[in-house]
């Protein structure tokens, strides 16, 4: 399994954008979260030679700006992208994903996103 940190609060190289939130690419195909700003995420992807054409889906862990901030810019570049969320996301978020032609999938239970990559669905009572 290959994991690339595309966006984070720190970087080993000043050429990469950094900020709040995180974005992780798994096996070059599945994106986990999108960080705080889409332009920064896409620029980091370009600098890391990430092929946007191979991206199959994005999994959003929770509906906070520093995890969803890059999603709209990403959807503008990649129409029809699958967007996995847990139940409980607000209707405004879901409507915007659909408006931008994202294929919204609410995963309430254990789901296989792609071969050998799974999500658990919503985890409750963690605080």
Give your account of this protein's structure.
- The protein has helices at 38-47, 65-68, 71-77, 91-99; strands at residues 3-7, 23-26, 30-32, 57-59, 82-85, 103-106, 111-114, 117-119.
- Helix 1 links the parallel strand 3 (30-32) and strand 4.
- The model has no long low-confidence stretch (mean pLDDT 91).
- The strands form two sheets. The protein has a six-stranded mixed beta sheet with strand order 1-2-3-4-5-6.
- It is globular.
- It has four helices and eight strands; from the N terminus they run βββαβααβαβββ.
- The N and C termini lie far apart (30 Å).
Mean pLDDT: 91
Strand order of the largest sheet: 1-2-3-4-5-6
Q: What is the count of helical runs?
A: 4
> Between the first and last Cα atoms, what is the distance in angstroms?
30 Å
Low-confidence stretches: none
Q: Can you write the helix and strand succession as a string?
A: EEEHEHHEHEEE
Structural class: alpha/beta
Features:
six-stranded mixed beta sheet; 127 residues; 8 strands; two-stranded antiparallel sheet; single chain; alpha/beta; 24% helix
